[in-house]
Putative transcriptional regulator (Chlorobium phaeobacteroides), 108 residues
Amino acid sequence: MAKTITTRYDVAEHLRTPEEMGAYLEACLEEANGDAAFIAKALGDIARAKGMSQVARDAGLSRESLYKALSGERTPSFDTILKVIDALGLKLHAEAAHVNNSEAQPVV
């Protein structure tokens, strides 16, 4: 029986357009369950797809500090996240969470 040869999957190789990058970030935000390091890693994937050096320049950060911040091993500051999102040409948006009306508390 022939051996199966596998290679490591790198999502950054598949993020080619701004729309794909935005959809990937949106999916990661939904799956993160409050894990900020997970979101940082997703932003790192997108930054690698776009070019880490260029993203670092656009964000006003050093390439080394950007790699560390977006490694998924730490939680970067919100200021860094906002700079990176802007440098990637992405936007954050918010919407109301679905609230069951029977659980909603009246405003007094």
Summary: The first helix runs from residue 18 to 31.
